[in-house]
Amino acid sequence: MSAPSFDSLLSRGRIAGLELSNRVLMPAMDMNLCVDGEMSDGEIAHYSARAAGGTAMVITGTGAVAWPIGATSLHQPAFSDDRFIPGIRRLADSVHAAGGKLCMQLCHHGKTASVDVAQGRPQLVPSLLEGQMDMSALRDNPMSELMALATATQGKKATYKVADEDDLAWVIDQFAQAARRVQSAGVDAIEIHAAHGYLLSSFLSRGYNKREDRWGGSLENRVRLTCEVVRAVKAVVGKNYPVLVRVNGYEYGLEDGLRPEETARAAAFIEEAGADAIHVSANAHNPFADFTQGPLPTEIAQYRDFAKKIKQHVTIPVVAVGRMLPEVANAMIAAGECDFVSMGRQLLADSDLVIKLQRGQYRSVRPCINCYVCVEQNFFDGNPKCAVNPALCNESVAVLTPMFKAKHIVVIGGGPGGMEAARVAATRGAKVTLIEKGSRLGGTLWFSQLTTPANGPLLDWLTFEIKRLGVDVLLSTMATSEVVKALNPDEVIVATGARRGLPDVPGADLPHVLTGDALRSLIAGDDDANVQSLSRLERSLISAGRSIGLLRNAARLRALSKSWMPVGKRVVVIGGSLVGLELAEFLAQRHRLVTVLEQGQHMGLPMAMPRRWTAVSAAKKLGVVLIREASVISISSVSVRYRSGEEEFEVRADTVVVASEVYPDSHVADSLKDLSVPVHIIGDAKTVDYIEGAMHSAHEVARGL
Questions:
Q1: Across the chain, what does the average pLDDT equal?
Q2: Percent of the chain with pLDDT over 90
Q3: Which residues are paired to 593 by β-bridges?
Q4: Strand, coil or helix: what is 296?
Q5: Where are the beta strands (DSSP E) in 414-512?
Q6: Ranges of each domain in the chain
Q7: Buried b (16+ CB within 10 A) or exposed e, 466-493
Q8: What is the pLDDT of residues 212-238, one digit of tens each?
Q9: Is the model's pLDDT at 2 over the cut of 70?
């Protein structure tokens, strides 16, 4: 199969007087690595790594023009005083030395300026906010998370001030002064943030702006503040200095919110005011329930049509964003739908994305799995982390130094942890043997792509990398002490994952009661699948699918499961954690009547919050019955009995899936205690922490060999 072409994506481009080496930008994402507004070494290392990886221009996380006034964090870049210029210059110099261009995003956060609340100031708004925010999504946040969410405002209640003429004149001047400082520090471009519900954005939106003066009402009036800011900034920086403006192509869940046609007309006004590019994002009114609509969408290229619409109304470059993949981005640019693309989470997952595309190494690009672990930390004013890239916000670990003396490393377990350990060790020069008891690599990651397709590219990447690096893979092999000793390893890494059990209640041993792993094996037609609960016809179908290879392809199997699965019509899932909730949604999409019984108070743990909120909402929309604080008492051939509070209840069930009994699997590690070489335990074999824990612990151990 020939490698995809990225000629359009990798072609040179221009914004105003700035020539860019390709069409890939990194959008603003808050790293929260600044110290009291000052650039830190960590902040500089983060952006410099993306520049070194070939990104044409990096846009820094949102900076406050009047910091700390109008700020969301004391850890974001500050532009409110000349004392911040030297730190900004250090960043610019570093990005330039790495071969990239630097753009800094200027913002006043308006109604989301949590620092204002914490420090006793009212938040600046166009109009007083109407109605109450729906907070029901927080039902599944434990108290520890709720307390962390409250730290940004120090638990204080927000107050608001409707901006008057003096306030708006001050805001415009603050943007102009911030632009002067940024330009004087050697930064290549500026982006004015007029999206995501911040001050300029709220003036632009009829949903938030109810004014009847020259700043409200008509579109021309509502866009006036953004245009005045653009004019003031351009008066300071000059005609040829690039000024981008970020806008919402759509405001989800907001009555009278922006829609693509109106934003396109607003963009024309912004261009007339002097803007040099329009960066098209989106936002959601409810930052909890709808966060995965905007500003961080779930769907690939979700904002594509918004950018396309705006492109039809302006003559300046248009930047598209919204879970972009390289092949989609290339097609959009080739078709004239946009001029540049911003790739955010993908550049967090792999800082070398662009340079790999330039070298024809597309399959070596580490994929983002869309898990929202990164952005969750922003809700807590913390530093982002990435489930698949341990180097995020810790760039020093990205450098894998060669081993002083090459070793033979035996890795036991072919799941994500074992594969990552093998990859890192092999990259460092080790001879690596990977032992997997099953007939394919991936472990639970292979099965998880059935319910969570975004996990599939991670498995593909790991598989490709260990093959490229020459890792010796032994499939269908039990890692007994004798087998391992015969390989004569210098060190051993055990990545055997978790074991899944059944609850200690009457009826748990009935044939229609399955662990999550057993259900997956049954659907995939594995050789060791328990087929006791199946009819003769169902067994024949699975046997036929296995013999012709139909069940070996996850995408094909996922599609097939929409027509038939060896699962009854009524399914009870015991355990509403990450696995249970994903499985419930998967089954409900296939027309099963699903009830989830969760013993704890919260569904979806330990999913990252945005993904958890979306998963709970999606399950409800599909008709899944979610029951919290439910303790299973017994299981019969037709039902499950459970206790909630002081009462007992019964729910009908043709199939019962247990997703609650998950423990580290230490039996292989225990069997190797007599080895005379070091044995390291990683991933779920040590602590159940799913993909993130597996990848991070594997990287740490293999990096230290």
A1: 94
A2: 84
A3: 570
A4: coil
A5: 431-435, 472-474, 491-494, 498-500
A6: 13-127+169-396, 400-500+663-703, 513-660
A7: beebebebbeebebeeeebeeeebbbbb
A8: 999 999 999 999 999 999 999 999 999
A9: no
